[in-house]
Design brief:
Largest sheet: none
CATH architecture of the largest domain: Orthogonal Bundle
Radius of gyration: 18 Å
CATH topology of the largest domain: Tetracycline Repressor, domain 2
Keywords: DNA-binding, Transcription, Transcription regulation
CATH superfamily of the largest domain: Tetracycline Repressor, domain 2
Distance between the termini: 60 Å
InterPro entries: Homeodomain-like_sf (IPR009057), HTH-type_TetR-like_transc_reg (IPR050109), HTH_TetR (IPR001647), Tet_transcr_reg_TetR-rel_C_sf (IPR036271), TetR_SbtR-like_C (IPR049445)
Shape: elongated
GO molecular function, one term: DNA-binding transcription factor activity
CATH class of the largest domain: Mainly Alpha
Number of helices: 10
Number of domains: 2
Order of helices and strands: HHHHHHHHHH
Structural class: mainly alpha
Organism: Nocardiopsis sinuspersici
Number of strands: 0
Protein name: AcrR family transcriptional regulator
Length: 182
Amino acid sequence: MRADARRNREKVLRAAYEAFASEGRGVSVQEIARRAGVGTGTVSRHFPTKEALYEAIVLDRMEVLAGAAEGFAAERGPGEAFSAFLGFMVDEGALDHGLADALSGDGFDVVAAARGTGHDVVEVLGALLARAQEAGEVRGDVDAADVKALVSGCIARGRGGADEAARRRTVAVVLDGLRPRA
């Protein structure tokens, strides 16, 4: 790829990330092109559809989330790693509308998109959940899909990051509800 084409692709990706984060999946290709300072044809040369561009952004975000999960697992015990990752996902989703849309499954199958990349966040979440359950720190009757739905609810409560205290409170209630009962 020529240097100018590579630079344009990076500009498009940067602009798309910012546009999807601030406006969600509904942002237009024209708006992304405008923010990148390129024409819509340039966007289309690199990403033939808006969905392909969105998928590239989401997969990048999934890589960040998966890396964070690995870090939490390496640095903390099972229950704490699970709790920290859940909180991290909520924080990231509350500030990034595009990520929130992907995690909620709003017209985009994040699991299918991430399959085979090593960055399947639901799989990573499931592994952290299983370890926390094996350690007796999370109740055994929930699965990764349940937790993903709870994360989406927490994100919806804190979307836009306007009320961080409410988001933290909601995460605390969810984590309390996930603890095993005597």
